[in-house]
Design brief:
Helices cover 62% and strands 1% of the residues. By secondary structure, the chain is mainly α. The chain has a two-stranded antiparallel ribbon.
Amino acid sequence: MATFKEISPNASAGEKVTNWFENRFPTAFDAYRVHLSEYYAPKNFNFWYVFGGLALTVLVIQIVTGIFLVMHYKPDAALAFGSVEYIMRDVPWGWLVRYMHSTGASAFFVVVYLHMFRGLIYGSYRKPRELVWVFGCAIFLVLMAEAFMGYLLPWGQMSYWGAQVIVNLFAAVPLVGPDLALLIRGDFVVGDATLNRFFAFHVIAVPLVLLGLVVAHLLALHDVGSNNPDGVEIKGPNAPRDAAGHPLDGVPFHPYYTVHDIFALSVFLMIFTAIIFFAPEMGGYFLEYNNFIPADPLKTPAHIAPVWYFTPFYSMLRAITSEFMYVLIACVLAAAAFSIFKFKMPAIFKGALAGAAVVSTVLMLSIDAKFWGVVVMGGAVIILFFLPWLDYSPVKSIRYRPGWHKYLYGVFVINFVVLAYLGVQAPSPAGERVSQVGTLFYFGFFLLMPWWSTVGEPKQVPARVNFSAH
């Protein structure tokens, strides 16, 4: 049995209550010390380090508002749209809860994209944080599944036809495609069975996986410590420490960064509430106007596009046409030839690489381009998992990389935004060409990273973090 910690009889009432709880629930107080009051974070965190906390806040908003929506929502193809209208019109404050949930979905992806971009520019995926990054990418992937399944639930025109298009993509998988699409739909068309299984996954199964990954992400982060804009390890074996063993370049997360995050949260909530009250549809990007029309299997919308946070990957899907396959084949053969002639390797490896290139070419010519579009769309997310092993730069942070790296990252961001914009537009020959170039650049950025990340002379990384009190 644990020994109770004694406290002075003259202690305040608050101290006595705290002591009472700590003696009976010491695990919670240990967790508070490990992850907040005694968790030392680099003291040079900047603006980019608020988005992880904001993502956690939005997750809480989505769970709470989702609970209230489920109280009135009917997962039935005949009743779903009407139940959403009932929530919006008749449930007290139902319109607010629904708009908080729909705006929260977009806000989630905004803060997650910014959080991932911070990891990209400051090298937060580098050793020893590879697992932190992998857990983060898994969260992103699961979040996309959660958002897609939730998008069907309002049972509007865009919800229905968007699900129809995306689920039908799985039918392009050779051999098992039709059966896989049937398994996902639960019927031969998107209908009541699809709605019920998507509802079950959106409300129960996927959130449980998401919460587990978030916990794993945070625990892994606190085990290895946070990165910082300088990419200097404040808890390394040679890092300076005080007499108590605390890093001199760190400060306790609480209260220093909890106050920091509360300020960021206040600004975020002002923007969030302004959107909810004044522009919840955000010009049709957050809530498409077609989704205010009941789903009609007999009437296809003029233009079907997913919600904005999926559109960069949807653009890559649409970029893969039959003629573009020849460009991809040329890229595969060129990469294989470059590797064979540039790098020293045993002859058997060179033969295997050449054989793999030939087999890939045959497969790409024999299987429909629609399937390769699905592969490219999925590959655009999966490739993020391998980023820790693609970056060979001798320094982590963009602050100390060659200057032209900043421009390359800037072009990457612009390219991603352009792909997102093209994804919400109707198909056009010019848009198709731009999206094809954008797709090649997106994959080239990552696949060529082992080469370009080593080009140029990096700047000298300081021994300690750069910090000036403010």
